[in-house]
Target: TetR/AcrR family transcriptional regulator
Amino acid sequence: MVRRKTTVDTWAMKRPAWNGEPPRDGEEAKERIIAAAMRCIDRRGAKTSLSEVATELGVIRQTVYRYYPSTEELFSAVGFAAINSFLDRLVEHLAGISDAAELVVESMAYTIEQVPKDPYLGLFLNLGEADSFSRGATSATVFDACRYAFARTDVDWEALGYTGDELTELLEFQLRVLLSFANDPLPGRDGAQLRAFLWRWVTPAV
Model:
C-alpha cells in the first residue's frame, strides 16, 4: 500500500532538496536539521513537529527520520547542541569570582534558575524522559564541556588541588545535584534562599 503524501510532503518535494544546498555529509546534515529545529522551536515551541522541520529544510519527513526517528530524539539533540551556548553564558556570568566555593554555588544557582527559561534546554527537560536526560547529562561529552567551561573561570583549580579526576568528580557531584533539581524542582525559594541552601549543604564538599 502506497502512503498518500501529505500537503507538507508534497510542498517540500516541489522545492529543491535542502533548499538547493545539499549537505556534504551526515554530520553536516545533522547540524542543519538541529539548526532548522531551533528556528521552528523559536516559532512554535513544544508544538514543533518533524514535518515542520522538514519543510524548513526543504526535504521530506523521511529525510529527517533518517537521522532522528522521533521528535523526542531531535529535541534531545537540540538540547545537547544548546549546552555549549549555555556554558558560554555561564562562564560570562561567573566572571570575577575567584573563590571556588562561591563559584560552585553561583554556577549551580544560575543553572537552576536559567535552564528552565532556555527555549531549547527547557524543552529538553520537559520531554518526560528523565532517565534518558540523566544519562546524557552525565555523559563524557557533557563532562568535557563542563571541564572546559570551568577552566575558563577565574578560579585557580590546579592550585586548589582540583586536577584530573578530582575536578571531574567535583563536576559529577554538581551535575548529580542539579539533576535532582531538574527532575523534581522545589518551588517557593527565591534567589537568595536558593543560594543560602546551596551554600549550607554544597560548600562543605568543596
